[in-house]
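Consider the following assembly input.
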Amino acid sequence: MIPAPFGYHRPTSVAGAIKLLSTLGDEARPLAGGHSLVPMMKLRLATPTHLVDLHGVAGLKGIRRDGNSIVIGAMTTQHELIGSEEIGTSLPILREAALLIADPQVRYRGTLGGNVANGDPGNDMPALMMTLGASYQLQGAGGARDVRATEFYQGAYFTALEPGEILTSIAIPVPAATHGWAYEKLKRKVGDYATAAAAVVLTMSGGKVTSCAIGLTNLHETPLLAADAAKAVIGTSLDAASLKKAASAAEAIMSPAADARGPVEYRKHVGGIMVTRALQRAASRAG
Amino acid sequence: MAKTHVTMKVNGAEVEGLVEPRTLLVHFLRETLQLTGTHIGCETTHCGACTVDLDGLSVKSCTMFAVQANGSEISTIEGMANADGTLSPLQEGFRMMHGLQCGYCTPGMIMRAYRLLKENPQPTEEEIRMGISGNLCRCTGYQNIVKAIQYAAAKQSGVEFKEAAE
Amino acid sequence: MNDMTPTREQREAALEGLGCKRKRVEDIRFTQGKGNYVDDLKLPGMLHGDFVRSPHAHARVKSINSEEALKVPGVLAVITAETLKTVNLAWMPTLAGDVQMVLADGKALYQNQEVAFVVATDRYAADDGVAKVVVEYEPLPVIIDPFKSMAPDAPVLREDLAGKTAGAHGARKHHNHIFEWTVGDKELTDAAFKKADVTIKELISYHRTHPSPLETCQCVCSFDKIKGELTIWGTFQAPHVIRTVVSLIAKLPEQKIHVISPDIGGGFGNKVGAYPGYICAAVASIVTGKPVKWVEDRIENLTATSFARDYHMTTEIAATRDGKVTGLRVHVLADHGAFDACADPSKWPAGFFNIVTGSYDFPVAHLAVDGVYSNKAPGGVAYRCSFRVTEAAYCIERAMDILAQKLGMDPAELRLKNFVRPEQFPYHSALGWEYDSGDYHTAMRKMMEATDYAALRKEQAQKRAAFKRGETREIMGLGVSFFTEIVGAGPSKNCDILGIAMFDSCEIRMHPTGAGIARMGTKSQGQGHETTWAQIIASEIGIPADNIMVEEGNTDTAPYGLGTYGSRSTPVAGAAIAMAARKIKAKAQMIAAYKLEVHEDDLEWDIDGFRVKGLPEKFMSMKDVCWAAYNSVPPGMEPGLEAVSYYDPPNMTYPFGAYLCVMDIDVDTGVFKVRRFYALDDCGTRINPMIIEGQVHGGLTEAFAIAMGQEIRYDETGNVVTGSFMDFFMPTAVETPHWETDFTVTPSPHHPIGAKGVGESPNVGGVPAFSNAVNDAFSFLGSTHIQMPHDYWRNWKTAKALGAVA
């Protein structure tokens, strides 16, 4: 349970962090909350030769309003998200999802940036970000760029993040005040990754869905945006038939791994159920 | 690998040591500082036996490097007793309510409960169970641990603890 | 008498003796992080050892190259089987009469088997060294399914047993066969089945799991070259046995071996046997002359130390059409992994599985057990189960529910109809045990009343109808479990471990000031012996429990004992404690008589001292007797006040209980919710009700985990799929149900204080309650037997197979 040796660096600025990552090369990794990376290192499944600790870097914390968006610093912890009044008011689905991640101790250290950047298909925040239409600011030697969450995930542990880049903040358009929302996560126990999870953000008018976005967690090698499933409920009152259509459309794009959480057919089936329940709960919250 | 000098405050006292970057905080506490109350029960960050209170947060010390704790303030189980040596409300609660058997999960459990009660002085049973969900116990089945924490919450509020009838 | 004189109640209370909820002595240090566990030990010059392990489940070890490893700063040595052969320790005997490789000798037989031991100056360097050892393997075909172990073309696993047609327990049928054990009357049983009105037959499997205490196995071995003495601190539930075993296999004189079990962070059977880590650390210490510490990781613990269960039980019951059982027939296929390292008393290759007639009066029964090898970790141990009693209880309790279903009878009614009746005790079971005492009907009825069982059945009927009408997607199950356990190993005529009889012991020495020290041959790993043993002594000799220091675990000072597992401590050591205390009391009576100038027979015992019959003001407290023992004993008597007792129990003890689990399952997701769990335990005399309740809570939580998902599972190439806490189900406080405990008291007639032991009962009785609840929930949809564990995904698959889910 002992990591291989590595060099440790604690820059104080984003520029400093980027410089270190590019000079130290491919085997250098940024260190955020560490609760995905350090366990891998202890099993020697990850053996970075250098760690660039982002905890000392200025400007990576904070939750602020920027016009119609909320911008969250990448080093904001799950615990800070949960305690934020702004998040609780404007993006309550983030709070609900954060409370379902891991356990209390992990949430004190685990960061939003870490959760969205490392490409682990089991992480909860990526699907949420896709559902919310978020975009990530990446900074590297070549400057800063924004990548939409929906374009960020390319495969398991494979993202649009280039070597030498770090994710510095996440910008999320604020949903309408009357939006309905829900993150429905089935797991074996507290602390486990999702057997299946669905995020829903929608708006309703006159009892009918006027807009909808559905995200899926751990049901594929990347998080998924279930566009067809969302389309299937627009204009409906989320009657049984529409819910069934949405669930089927979502299941059609799922390809979960068979693992100790269950075989493929089970995970797809409960994935569909998570979509249904998330839609129903979101609708109950819509203004 | 070259060693680094770290300093931090542990249980109110300034401490220091020479560590490799990869030295886990839990090993620094146990081996360098000889504070063996914090325990190790797994290597996958599940069991919580290594939980300490670091800069006001419950942290699994097996998933942090000592170098990351440079300049931090840490409380471990060894610092929990009252200044006059009597047991703190949590420690007393665990004893009175039989919230421990083998004692191995107990330091991590108490350190976690300490922060839980600081943030939520009157938790419901559900909040307690969620609150300690990062700490595994094999002996007690958690029921008496919940009572122990309720006992401490009551004592810290100056209220008498009334055990719920079974 | 004046206002200052304590009342009898006050004097009794001051003792904190039998029956009181004495707060634990251990807690003072544990709540302050001042426990003394093996890994807390730091000795000057101490080295660390760590293992290179096989990634393959079955493979030839072609070569082990330590060159690069030895270049790692801090690495001092790499020990292999070749090294151990030079001291004849490459193999070691197991507790079950087999032999086990300490390090892979020519081949590896299970994933994560120990291949080499790297010794270094600290644990970081040891880990680095392990990463640099290069092993060349040639994979071999693998056996994971025990039902394939004895196929004609099955690969040979144990080349060391080539040509050996008999093992420690008799003839072997096949190169992968270990033993066959039969008990009972086959002829009579077969006859009963032939003429039965109704029979059931089902394969009931108890899957492989693991005790997983929170502290893993570890040791520090320190060999003093000058004195030729070896000291071992370790996680040993049976420290004396370890000392004797080490003496025999290392050929060191036993008086020069000091084994110490300090505080142990949970055992649950995991820490009974000897593991390669202990042997390698000892050898490394002998070779280097320095202390060597070995601490295993969690993954190592789960995948390489001894598993539990893995019993596949083909079970048949014969009955009359009105529900009276007439015969029981069970065949067990026992998967022991690569080596039979089962921790059983020697004569019993399948432990006490022949308790499988359970709480029921079977006139005839027959049992056959076949043990086989496979490419899995060796074992199995008793994970809070006495010896194979969890398997037996699960088998019979499931089978009775299956029979009830076939007969169209309520499972509780079927049990009540077939219980051994109070007047039948002591009861001789058809498979050879004499149950000491029991009152099953009372316990069962108390459970049914406390839970309003009849109302729950009504509710279930309504819910089933609603389900069929499509009004709900939830099904409800009631899991009844009525278990009879057999614990307290054991009488010398039945039980021995490697030839040492399974008595236990207590030595008490009183000090002049009315305090004392007591040592026993048991070793608590959380059961609270420092607290409860003193309570027994307090009630026997009238000295407050707080004045009695209790020590266990140091083999130099503690009298020989067989350790703590299988709920044996209270039945055996508890008896020895009472007997030793009574010897003290007998001598004390003579001293008191002398001091009070009366005849012994004129004295009667009164809570904390001796009183002259008819002269109540003439009283001598035990405290004062202690002083007198050191200055004025009767002529001809030796001074001092101490006694030792070695207790060979005349019989096992038979705790029992009635449990009910109420469970709701969502068929669409397979998610279960334990709505209510009621546990009534009868452990005879109750020493400390607070500790008993804690034991029940803990055992039920383990049972819950096992029944609902905790398994050690292998894929078809022999990889352990559930080798860490990610997938090995360890419930948190959120998943763990709320427990309701209750009790009856049926003392053991043969035990000095009537106590039976309780630690394992909740695991024994709990698993059937959970599994029966799931089975009961689904049965109306057409199932007969659903194998556990009952994970969400398995419940869903069951629902799908039954047509309840599209």
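The mean pLDDT of chain A is 97. Ask yourself how this observation constrains the way the partners meet.
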